[in-house]
Fold this protein.
Amino acid sequence: MGQEKRKLRVERNTEGGPKGKRSGLSDEDSVGDTASVVSLNSDRGSYDDGIDNGNDDYEDSTTTSRDVTTFGETLEDKFVEALDQITEKSANVRTTALNLLVTQLSQNFRPDLMLGRRETLRDNLERILKRGAPNEQALAAQVYSLSAIQVGALDPDLATEDFTAIKPCLQSLMLDHTASISVRAKCCEALCIGGLLAETCLQDVANLITLLEPLFGAKGEKLVNNKDVEKLVEKSDAFGIGASPAKSVKIPKASTSVLAATAISGWSLLLTIMSPDYLSTRVHRWTGILQGLLDHPDLEMRLCAGEALAILVEMCELTEDSEDTYSESEETDEDDISKMRNGHSNKKTNMKVLIEKLRELSVESHKYRAKKDRRQQHHSFRDYLHAVEDGDGPGFVMRFGSGEVLEIESWAKKRQYDAICKVLGSGINRHLVENMMIRQVLELGSPKPAVVNSPNSDARQAKSDRQYLNAMNFKVRSVNRGKNRDHRMATLEDY
């Protein structure tokens, strides 16, 4: 048997004819182990790849241009698909679709996607807020916040219309003591973002401020009778109080520190767009309430109260020298209003006591507090102390886009930036560059033209785009090569 194999090798090596002519071999021997089937198909596969793809540079350039062209279409298809899926019967499908909407609306600025679909999205979100599971309700509130930012850039009046329509559902959930705390907190954030963007409805914003106060321990404003309402309307021009005050609403007696801290943050956010006259008639009652919250055991509550105090002192220009009492005429008029509306006395804020309290918290060293909490409290309250005592701003500077700089020198502006940044997450840079409404709120002006290959350009701005295009390139190459591999596997049967 060994001699026959050696003879076979000699005949094959000494044969001078073409490679395909193998006389004397049976069909069984023609596909033996020594046949070069794989290498033959690999060579042909590489040739096919060369026909389809050409060189690497040509493939990358054509694929990139094609992906840039179809990027908007792919995003729109995903948006429409997710919009359809939030009405499915499966809870998992709805949750996945809502998460996809959150990702798309935060990472991309495409207000044109909302054209023709805004009312459909709003109706679907209202349906989920009324009948959905707690996790769906929280996601729906988050989607509304993101859609309000997109729609507001398209048309502020449309954002106001959406806020007016969805506000009752969000308010009902926020005030429902049987709902989940996370859902109530998300609804509170959505209401405050909607109120910030729909600032033309200042009466609605004032009513929302009243609703938020009991959530962190403040007593809401109450009216005694219709006569007091008439007096209030007559004196509203002088003291900046709305002519149609909100009715008293039953608020849950207790709320957790998470919801209370969220309510304080949203409440202070809404104060940043109110008129000085509106704030001046309430500032002394509010500073007293917030000063009492500085002793709260929860760190987040103390920090939110301290920031709200810095905002109030800054906007109302309270100083130690302004602690004089009212004149008799001012005291009489405001006493009528405050007893009807606010229920607080005309005592001025004791700035010396407030400054001393902030200084105490900035150096507090109680061992029953965590070391990390003490460090964060010291850092934050030192800034609040300088704001109340010396009128210093946060001094926050951030670079983004094509060499643009965002300078935040006031605590009101910082509260607005923090609220928007919390909603958008990592997509804040894209919106700062392209979203005119966000730029208007933060006083950034018109966007600067992008400079290609500029040394000052921010390479991190386009990182998400590069990653997406690279992934799409890899997918196209994999599909093309996969097709060729399928053909090669099919041709093996011929040999």
